[in-house]
Specification:
- The protein contains 16 helices and eight strands.
- It has 329 residues and is an alpha/beta fold.
- The chain has three domains: 3-138, Rossmann fold (3-Layer(aba) Sandwich), CATH 3.40.50.300; 143-205, Orthogonal Bundle (Helicase, Ruva Protein, domain 3); 210-328, Up-down Bundle (Zinc Finger, Delta Prime, domain 3).
- The strands form two sheets. A six-stranded mixed sheet has the order 1-6-2-5-4-3, with helices on both faces. Strands 7-8 form a two-stranded parallel ribbon.
- β4 (72-77), α4 (91-102) and β5 form a beta-alpha-beta unit.
- α3 (55-63) packs parallel to α4 (91-102).
- The longest helix is centred in the last third of the chain and has 23 residues, at 243-265.
Length: 329
């Protein structure tokens, strides 16, 4: 499977490619997966950084034949000429490059541009020309799409993972794709020969995120297990997290839970809430299973706001006030 097919593409039949999105780690991983396909194994592989190596280097490699009499496949990183602010000194080089791009489909060599930017200036002539000539792959994923992407990627690479293990991987990656992908790469290098990524493997090798630990503290507190909740909180305080940092995460999770409960009371389905909040489905599922009442959540959020104000204004200093807040849950 072409890994790029997991994302929105403008022209999948075109080999010339632009990988575009904010996540540099993800973009480079996908681009390298693409160029390392079996069908490109006999090509000469080159990597050019447009910002460091210069546009002359890119143009030369696009238009010149390989010294080894082979087709070239080029990873072109940092195509800064697609962005809004470009120094005037590059004007002539960009004009030359634009002419080459106009005839990109006639070149024997293949180029994969990696544009790890928040946006591309689509008003520029060179941007319009390039995006009309290549397959534009937008790597932006919504939070609720992360699990589906990871599951497809893991399967494509010959590994297996259960839904429960995938859920644990995402939670320990703090719902962040970049972190989840990095953790997956770590796990696939240490898993057994059978290629199974298990909950046990994840538990032994991937630390819990701060957000996940606070979630576990809240879960214990809501169940009335204050000994376990207090123990976990003490562990965090010993590790150097201060009360204000922890309180901010508490407040964030309570507010998220409140929003889910409001929508749940309006008889929204899990899928509707996931799409509305653009959140991970597993996080929504756990929130919906919590039986806490709305009035209680509102009261806890108000307490958290008052406590935060007290800490920041020097009214409270001791961490005991945070522990008392936990006991009020």
């Amino acid at each position: 499977m072409n890994i790029l097919s997991l994302f929105k593409q403008s022209n999948p039949k075109t080999t010339q490619t632009l990988v575009f999105g904010e996540d540099a780690f993800l973009n480079e991983y996908l681009a390298r997966k693409f160029v390392n396909q079996e069908k490109f194994k006999d090509f000469e592989h080159l990597t050019i950084d447009c910002a460091e190596d210069g546009l002359d280097e890119l143009m030369a490699n696009l238009t010149e034949s390989s010294l080894f009499d082979r087709q070239k496949i080029i990873l072109a990183k940092n195509p800064f000429f697609l962005t809004t602010k470009v120094a005037a000194k590059y004007k002539k080089d960009i004009e030359k490059l634009q002419v080459i791009i106009q005839h990109l489909d006639e070149l024997e060599n293949i180029v994969v541009f990696i544009a790890s930017y928040e946006s591309i200036d689509r008003r520029k002539k060179i941007s319009k020309e390039l995006m009309s000539q290549v397959n534009v792959v937008e790597t932006k994923l919504k939070p609720y799409e992360i699990s589906g992407f990871l599951k497809a990627l893991i399967k494509d690479e010959g590994y297996t993972i259960t839904n429960q293990a995938l859920q644990m991987l995402i939670q320990r990656s703090d719902q962040v794709l970049d972190s989840a992908l990095s953790n997956y790469l770590k796990l696939k290098n240490i898993c057994a020969d059978d290629g199974k990524i298990t909950e046990s493997l994840i538990d032994r090798n991937i630390d819990r995120s701060l957000s996940e630990n606070i979630f576990e503290i809240l879960t214990s507190a809501f169940k009335g297990d204050y000994n376990q909740a207090s123990k976990r909180l003490d562990d965090h305080l010993r590790e150097g997290n201060n009360a204000i940092q922890l309180l901010a995460v508490f407040q964030n999770q309570l507010e998220f839970l409140l929003v889910v409960k409001v929508l749940q009371n309006r008889r929204w389905s899990q899928d509707q809430i996931v799409r509305e909040l653009k959140a991970n489905p597993y996080r929504i599922k756990f929130a919906m299973q919590n039986s806490v009442r709305l009035a209680k959540l509102k009261s806890l959020i108000n307490q958290a706001i008052e406590l935060d104000y007290g800490y920041k204004n020097g009214i409270y200093h001791s961490e005991e006030f945070l522990k008392l807040f936990l006991l009020s849950i």
